[in-house]
Amino acid sequence: MREFVIPLQLINLQGDGFHLLVEVVVYGQNFQAVLDTGASKSAFDKEIIESLAVDDIIYMPDQHAIGLGTTTMERYVAHFPELEIGNLIIQDYEAPVFDLSAVKYAYEQLNLPPVIGVIGGDILMDYHAKIDYESLTLVLKGAN
């Protein structure tokens, strides 16, 4: 398996902890995403994804998501022909999309760069993630 060493950015939440950001490419555009080991699945902001690819969002009326600070919420899923994290390219990836306006607002209030979503446990587990805080790198292992 090939190793992909991906740079991370450490964001200080002004006395309220830290977040790690990783650059991702979605629909050919660069964004920052929060690297979240506590998230069971990666998820993206519905408003941003709709602005990029309205046709790739599917409403899942019989499924609700749990987490992100609420008990349940409507669930939408987006199809990404390609999701790039560093040099790793994940083909035909599906992920939930939610209203992440509260997260975006919190970042804005701290004068931090906006984020498109979170990279969570699904990708971190599937690609054997190793996070190195000292060198601020994420190592993923994959076939491409």
From TrEMBL:
Pfam families in UniProt: Asp_protease_2
InterPro entries: Aspartic_peptidase_AS, Peptidase_aspartic_dom_sf
Gene3D superfamilies named among the record's database cross-references: Acid Proteases
Hydrolase as UniProt keyword: yes
UniProt GO molecular function: aspartic-type endopeptidase activity
GO biological process, one term: proteolysis
Alphabetical UniProt keywords: Hydrolase, Protease
Protein name: Clan AA aspartic protease
Taxonomic classification: Bacteria, Pseudomonadati, Bacteroidota, Sphingobacteriia, Sphingobacteriales
